[in-house]
Design a protein that fits this description.
Number of helices: 2
Radius of gyration: 19 Å
Largest sheet: 6 strands, antiparallel
Strand order of the largest sheet: 1-4-12-6-10-9
Oligomer: single chain
Structural class: alpha+beta
Shape: globular
Length: 232
Amino acid sequence: MAGTMGLLALGVVMAIVFRHDISHQLALAEGRHIVASHKAELLDLSAYYDMAASQFEQTKGSHFPEWAYVPRGFETFAHVPLQIGGIKCLWGAGNAKAGMSFDEEVTGIPMNREFETLYVYHCTFFGAPNKTPVYDLVFRYEDGSSMTNRMLYGVDVLDWFGSGGPSGSNSRLAWHGVYSSGGKTQPLRFCLTALENPYPSIEVTSIDLYSCKNISAGCVLAMTPGKSGLMH
C-alpha cells in the first residue's frame, strides 16, 4: 500500500513538472514569434550589468545564493520577450548602510529606435513605504527633448525577497519562485512594468537611470522596447 501511494505521489509530481515544462516552452515560442514579427526587440544591456547572468550560478555558497535559482537568458513573462543578461543596480540607502553602494546614475544607454512601449523587468533590494520613489528612467529623444518615468515602490516595483505583485495598472508580477536550503525558505519575485512612450514617432536615442536616493535600490535585469499591449 505504501509503495502504491509513493508511486501515485511520484506520478503527480512528474505530471506537474511536465505541465510546467510544456507551459514554459509555449511561452518561449510565443516570445520568439513576437520578436520575429518585429513587435518587440531585445535590448542588449551587457555593457551595464553589475553582475552578468553567467555569474549567477557562482553565487551558490555565497551570502546571496538565491541568484543561482532565478531565470536568466531568453524568457517570456506576461507575454513579453526578455533577454535577462544580468542585473544593474542603482544606489539605495539600505545597501549603502550595509556596505554595498551602487551607481547613483547610469546615463547614455543606447536605444536608437522608435517604439510604443518599453517593458522593464526589475526589482529592488530592500523594501520601502508604498509609493516611495525608487528610480527614474528617462527617455532621451532625437530632437533633444526628454520624458521621465518615475518608478514607485509597491506600485511599479518590489523587493525581490517576498511574494505578491505590484499594485500599478502598468505593472505585473512577472516571475516568482522559492529558494530553499538548510531549513531556510525564501520567496523570490521580479516585476514587469510597461512604460508608454508619449512620442512613439520620434526616435529615442538613449535611456538614463537615476536613483531617487531613498532606502530601496532599483535593480534592472532586462528591457524590451516594442508595441503597446504586449503585457497581459
